[in-house]
Design a protein that fits this description.
With about 120 residues, this protein is of the alpha+beta class.
Length: about 120
């Protein structure tokens, strides 16, 4: 009789070893993703979370236990994005120019190609 007393010995039995393989792949993919982020931004700190949930059900007067796993959940870091600043006009629309700032020069100047320096 094989007695399973440690979790590391349990995983190869769950789902005929498929859960162990899936979790290993999930960990590898997550680690590779974090490594890529760290290479792009060496000063950044990137964290991820991998969660495996096991449901245990005891039946038949305690002689049997059923162990079911949910798909591993992966939470990857939120990447910083650039911020865009626009002006909010009185009517609720957006503009790249402040509505109360006067156009001092009347728009772009036409440059004479024959000018001298």
């Amino acid at each position: 009789m094989a007695i399973i007393s440690e979790v590391k010995n349990l995983f190869p039995y769950l789902e005929g070893g498929d859960l162990n393989a899936e979790l290993s792949n999930t960990m590898r993919d997550t680690q590779a993703h974090l490594a890529g982020l760290a290479q792009e931004n060496p000063l950044g700190i990137f964290k991820a979370k991998v969660t495996i949930e096991l449901e245990l059900v005891v039946r038949q007067g305690g002689e049997m236990i059923e162990i079911s796993a949910k798909n591993p959940k992966v939470k990857l870091p939120d990447l910083p994005r650039k911020t865009t600043h626009l002006f909010l006009l009185d009517d609720g629309t957006l503009s790249t120019e402040h509505q109360r700032q006067a156009d001092w020069v009347g728009g772009p100047r036409i440059v004479d190609p024959n000018r001298s320096f």
